[in-house]
Amino acid sequence: MDKSKALQIVKEQLTENRYKHTLGVRETALYLAKRFNIDYNKVEIAAILHDYAKYRPVEEMRELLRGKEEAARFIAYGDELLHAPAGAYFIQTEAGVADGDIVSSIYWHTTGKPNMTAYEKVLFLADYIEPNRTFPGVEEVRETAEKDIDAAIVMALGNTIQFLISKNVPVFPETLAAYNDLVMERK
Ligand code: DGI
Ligand code: FE
Ligand code: FE
Ligand code: FE
Questions:
Q1: For residue 186, is it within any domain?
Q2: What is the pLDDT of residues 113-150, one digit of tens each?
Q3: Which of 86, 92, 112, 144 could form a disulfide with 178 if both were Cys (CB 3.0 to 4.6 A apart)?
Q4: Does a structural domain hold residue 64?
């Protein structure tokens, strides 16, 4: 998959604002990737395609995930989560992406998970801090990301968990485990 093809196929799936967010995630992910010895081309394709399923009908995503042994449990935790694992499947079946780093970073981009790879960390954090994001606390996470990517991810996960609790929404187990994993690793 080359970048221009990825941009073209994702554009058809997204609104104008979501496409703008996607370009922001691409820019931030490439910037963060400089601190790891990883493949920039894979980082870029993952960033471009990360919200591929964002506007798919919820029923279509539920139906797809119901049939996947490991992904079915996302369904119970809220519709907002489904585009991440669903997108990871659709880019394989509809766009022919096969690379495991690209697929797994998209799969986990919303929830995070313990023991994230560099690809997974870069996409997770880029999605949270890209320049078009304006939610409370994002500037502090951006500043922390300049010095320490894991510390920034802890802040992003903590903010998300607090936000979900304030809304009385269930927290996906891997989101909590990701937080615990990084906090304990840093002690
Ligand atoms: O798709 P984006 O808007 O770019 O961002 P995203 O993929 O990080 O999705 C954010 C949404 O996901 C937001 O509504 C909060 C929700 N979310 C994140 N982690 C969890 C979660 N929702 C639940 N129920 N549980 C989680 O652990
Ligand atoms: Fe997303
Ligand atoms: Fe996110
Ligand atoms: Fe996103």
A1: no
A2: 999 999 999 999 999 999 999 999 999 999 999 999 99
A3: 112
A4: yes
Spatial CA neighbour of 173 closest among 118, 114, 130: 114
57: containing domain: 3-134
Residues 87, 105 contacting (CB under 8 angstroms) = no
CATH code, 71: 1.10.3210.10
For 25-41, what is the mean pLDDT? 98
Q: Report if residue 166 sits inside a domain.
A: no
Residues sharing a CB contact under 8 Å with residue 38, sequence separation 6 or more, in sequence order: 101, 118, 119, 122
Question: CA-CA distance, 143 to 162, in Å (whole number)?
Answer: 20
Going by alpha carbons, the residue nearest to atom 16 of ligand 1 is: 80
What is the domain count for the chain? 1
39-62 per-position pLDDT tens digit: 999 999 999 999 999 999 999 999
Pocket mutation for ligand 1, best pick of 52, 56, 80 (most atoms within 8 Å of C-beta): 80
Mutate to test the pocket of ligand 1, among 25, 51, 110, 175 (most ligand atoms within 8 A of CB): 110
Token pair for residue 176? 């909590």
